[in-house]
Here is the input.
Amino acid sequence: MPIINFVFQEKSVPLYEILYYALRPILATNEYYIMPNLLYQFGVEDVNELMGLLAENLKKRRLERGISRKALSEMSGVPSSSIAHFEQKHAISLHSYVALARSLGYTQQIKSLMQAPIYETMEELLEITRNKNRKRGRNAFKENPR
Here is the structure.
């Protein structure tokens, strides 16, 4: 399916972005954010809640396949005590989490994490485009509402 582009401030802008900005005031609420081509529901905001969600999802995927903690430990190289600690206390190193996800076949999902920029306004999109090839950040801090 071809992407239709329009020219906005001397930049080519895909049609879905124009629709995104046109529909956002109608569909955006405190619980929903519209992103290009997708509608996401964000009910989880806190880091601890996110870690709990990751632990819950890992446990679900493990149990769906009928894999014990010991078997997952052997597959991933992560100690079974670390797996139990993650499932119960929601704490794990990034290295161990990636090893577990990889063992369950989620390598592509890990690779695609944070692959594309997220933006809400045309100004953010333009700033992302300007900064695409930056090697260093600036000392300016903008609070992220997400």
Remarks:
- The first helix runs from residue 15 to 27.
- The radius of gyration is 20 Å.
- Confidence is low (pLDDT under 50) at residues 29-41.
- Residues 1-43 form one domain.
